[in-house]
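Fold it.
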Amino acid sequence: MVVHLLGWLAAFWAGGASVTYSHDVAAILYRNCASCHRPGGVAPFSLLTYQETAKRAGLIAAVSSKRSMPPWLPVAPHFQEERRLSDAEIATVTRWAAEGAPEGNSAATPAPPHFPEGWQLGPPDLEAQMPAAYDVPADGPDQYRCFVLPSQIPRDRWVRAVDMRPGNSRVVHHALLFQDITGSARQRDTGSGYECFGTPGFLPARGLGGWTPGSLPFRAPDDIPILLHAAADLVLQVHYHPSGKPETDRTAMALYFTDRKPTRHALDIPLGSSRIDIPAGDAIYKVTDHFTIPVAVDAIGINPHAHYICKDMLGYAALPNGTRRILIHIPDWNFSWQQEYLYAAPVRLPAGTDVVMEFTYDNSDANPRNPNHPPKRVLWGPSTTDEMAGLHIAVVPVHTDDEDDLAAALWGKMIRATGGGGLRK
C-alpha cells in the first residue's frame, strides 16, 4: 500500500498543473469529511471554508496519508457509505498542502453541502431523551444503567432508521435502545434509572439500535424495517466509563418511521467469547468462534466489537466448496471508531457455510493503544480496560420457510454456549 501510494504521489507531482482548494480540494473534503467537520458536528473543528481548511493543511495531509482520517477501519470487503480516500485523493491533498495550500479562484469553489439542524437525518418522527440528567462519578467501576424514556406509541409502527446522541461523549462508552412490552422496566425505573449489566432486565429484549464512538445513524434496509409495538416502553441502556471528574449525561434518541411493511426478516448470528485471559506482554493472543449456517442466507451487515488492545479482526465464511470469503477484515482496530457495517451488496452464503471469527490482541508495550504501560494481565469484562470479543452478522434467509430452522439453530448455539476460547499462537 505504501509503495502504491508513493507511486501515485510521484506520478501526480509530475503532472504539472497546480492544485488549488477551489478546483481540487474542496470537493474531496465536502464529500468525505464535512459530515463530521461542520458547525454542530462531532469533530472539533469545521472544514467548510477555505480559511478553516488552509490553516490546517499540513494536519489534513498528514492524517490523510496515514489513513487515520477519515476514520474507516475495514480493508475488505466493500460496504455502504465508505469513508475512505482513494490514493489519488490523498495525493491531491498532500500536494496541495506541500505547495502552500493555494486557494485558487474563490468564485469557482463549489457550494458546501447543506446539513439539517439537529439530527443527522433531519426531523424525526419520534424524539425522546432521558427524563433527567444522570450524575456519573469521577471514578470507580464502569456503570450499566437503564432509563425508561418518556414516549407515547399509540399504535404499531415500522422503524426505518434510528439515531442516538450521547449527552456527554466523555463518559458514554456506548448506548443501546430496546423496547419493553412487559412493563417491567417502568416498574424498576423510579426516576434515575436502574442497574442493568448484560441484558436490560426484561425478556424478550427487542433491540432497536445503538450508538458507539464514531457510529453513523442506523438505517434498516427498505424491505426490513423494525416493528415497534404499540404501547411499548423505550428503554435506553447506557454504559458509563468515569472520566476522572464528576460528569452528567442526558442521552437522546430519534426514530424515523415508514408505512412500508417488511417483506423479509433479518436474524443475528452472534460470534464471540467471554473466555479471554491475555497475559501481560502477549502480542498475538487469539480468540475464535464459529457457527455452521444450516440454510442458505444473504448476509446484509456485520458489527464487530472489542476494546483497546484488540489489533486484528477477521471474519470469514468457509463455503461448502472449500473456498473462503472475507466478511470483514480490520487489520488495525481502533476502539474510538467502531460501527455497524452494511454490505454494498448482499453476500450469498449457501447452506453448510461455516462463519468464523478470529480476533488477535496485542497486550505488549509496543501497542500504542494499550492503556497499560507496563502491560497488565487483561481479562474478559465490562470495563473499557477489560476486553471483549464479538462479531454479529445480520443475515436474511434466502427462503422465507427457512427462518424457523435458522432461529432454532441460533437458539441452540446460545444454549450450548460453545464460544471459542483464547488460543495463543
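The two ends are 27 Å apart (CA to CA).
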